[in-house]
Specification:
This protein has 6 helices and 12 strands. By secondary structure, it is of the alpha/beta class. The two termini are 24 Å apart.
Length: 231
């Protein structure tokens, strides 16, 4: 099972599934799958399908489902929230690695200190799917884009918040004890005083990510790595 493909749930009908667009092209033209070959695909909703290729066309690959393995949702959900990063390659790196490190969802927001830039959502979604397949995850993280930290707290009401803060006295993050968690990291300029006070008002737990100053994308990955073994 070296390669796992992604198929949208709407392309699974009965005991058959279909790969379309880039997934179909990758299977048929790059990896040269043929009719009768064994192929594994995931729907991003916890299911992994063992299939046999039944037909191949220019734009799609059809396969018969032989076995289905369902993985339950994780007990602890980690939503990685970080301020928008202006440089595209760094933003893409942060999103890709957040998927590999187990983020349940990824939320990019315009922080008070963020430098506004246009985000190519389609390209980021392709990166998410690629990282999802490479890391052999079963649940595909959703990426959300919000206008402010205020909107983040509105979107994720009832979540326990953990905020990385350069002046935090706590040096080591504590294990996550809640089922739903927001992991908050600021942009290159850090969180504004207003955002810090907002987070405190919302009951956020302030933590330190170490004595060194980190780039925004490094901080996001460091934050997630603290909880890598959380179930």
């Amino acid at each position: 099972m070296d390669n796992i493909f992604f198929t949208h749930p709407e392309h699974i009908i009965g005991n058959h599934l279909e790969l379309v667009d880039q997934e179909a092209a990758h299977a048929s033209k790059v990896l040269r799958f043929n009719v009768g070959d064994e192929l594994y695909a995931s729907d991003g909703k916890g299911s992994l399908y063992k299939t046999k290729v039944s037909s191949i066309s220019k734009k799609s690959v059809f396969a018969d489902i032989l076995e289905t393995d369902q993985e339950p949702e994780p007990k602890t959900k980690k939503v990685m929230v970080f301020g928008a990063i202006k440089k595209r390659d760094r933003l893409e790196f942060a999103v890709e690695k957040a998927v590999e490190l187990g983020a349940w969802e990824i939320c990019v927001f315009n922080a008070d200190h963020s430098e506004r830039s246009k985000i190519n959502e389609d390209r980021l979604q392709s990166i998410v799917i690629s990282a999802f397949k490479q890391s052999k995850r079963r649940w595909l993280p959703e990426v959300k884009y919000l206008s402010s930290l205020d909107d983040v707290f509105k979107q994720y009401q009832g979540y326990h918040s953990v905020m990385a803060h350069v002046e935090a006295e706590v040096q080591r993050p504590e294990p996550l004890k809640h089922e739903k968690n927001l992991l908050l990291v600021g942009p290159e300029g850090g969180f504004s005083d207003r955002e810090i006070e907002l987070a405190k008002d919302k009951g956020a737990h302030m933590i330190s990510l170490g004595k060194n100053r980190l780039r925004a994308e490094t901080a996001a990955l460091t934050m997630l790595s603290q909880y890598l073994f959380t179930e």
